[in-house]
Amino acid sequence: MAKKKKKGGGGGEAKVETAGGLRWLITYADMITLLLGVFIILCSGGAPSESEIQKLTIGLEKVFAIIEGGGGKTAMPGPTGEKVLEENTGVLYNAKDLTGPEALITRKYTQTFKGEIKKGEMEVKLIKDALVIRCLGTLLFEHGNARLKPEAYPTLERIAYLLSGISNKVVIEGHTDATPVQTSQFPSNWELSTVRATNVLHYLIDYVQKSGFSDSKIEDFQKRLGVFGYAQFHPAVKDPYDKLNNRIDIVIYHHKTEKELLD
Predict the structure, then answer these.
(1) How far is residue 180's CA from residue 165's CA, in Å, rounded to a whole number?
(2) What is the pTM of this model?
(3) What is the Cα–Cα distance from 206 to 210, expressed in whole angstroms?
(4) What sign has the CA pseudo-torsion 103, 108, 113, 119?
(5) Which residue stretches of the chain are H helix?
(6) Which of 73, 102, 120 represents a domain boundary (last residue)?
(7) 153 near 139, Cβ under 8 Å?
């Protein structure tokens, strides 16, 4: 009578995993291969150019488009144009806005004002012809006042530093909510919005003048600046009385030297 083979034990046959149980190794191996390829690209040759970095970024976005980030948001833009969370700043962009030089420009300016954006004091966004740095609410001014708050100086100095390094046309727009203003200094919101924008312009110019730039550089900086006061007639939100309509928009217009925004 044949003896039955014992299962397990020191002298018994070892359990052999089926091929199905090893499927995780395929995914793991693919991931390691991809990472190895990335490191080889990064380590080979000299410093990559902006165009090479952009090509690499687009390639990685296509590979990792399905990876989920925190809170169910996709970490990279997918083919359907879903929204993505820009580096934990709380600002959402459409995937179509995250390609080409505009994407790098937006990331740079978003990171520069990361603290203010997280506090809900600023926004950085792309529009058709420009990049907008939006200073919201009471970041720069008290309600009904046009005097710059001292705590806003560091933010304005960072803005001035960025603008002094480019040659784009820049317009500073003053906006208010629909609450009527009628004082001896500001007969209406027209005057309030215009004086606010003008005070921001003067602070930016003063910063550049104190930074040791040449007279020609300072003059060129001033030539590129403009000021508009729109009162309450271009609200940022539907409710015209919402305090979010009180803002300064610094509009940086695109032109052929948009690469300067990245330097």
Answers:
(1) 38
(2) 0.60
(3) 6
(4) positive
(5) 23-43, 50-63, 100-112, 114-118, 153-164, 189-210, 215-223
(6) 120
(7) no
Could you read off the pLDDT tens digit of each residue along the chain, which spans 263 residues?
555 555 555 555 555 555 556 677 777 787 888 888 777 777 765 555 555 555 555 554 444 333 333 333 333 333 333 333 233 333 333 333 334 566 666 777 888 899 999 999 999 988 888 889 999 988 999 988 999 999 999 999 999 998 988 888 999 999 999 999 988 899 999 999 999 999 999 999 999 999 888 999 999 999 999 999 999 999 999 999 999 999 999 999 876 444 554 45
Locus of tokens 């729109």: 230
3-state SS assignment for residue 225:
strand
Dihedral angle sign, alpha carbons of residues 102, 107, 112, 115: positive
Query: Do residues 112 and 158 lie in contact, with contact meaning Cβ atoms separated by under 8 Å?
Result: yes
**Chosen domain end from 87, 120, 153:** 120
User: Are residue 133 and residue 219 in the same domain, yes or no?
Assistant: yes
Is the Cβ–Cβ distance between 105 and 166 less than 8 Å? no
Whether residue 177 lies inside any domain: the answer is yes
- If we measure between CA atoms, which residue out of 111, 106, 82, 109 comes closest to residue 94? 82
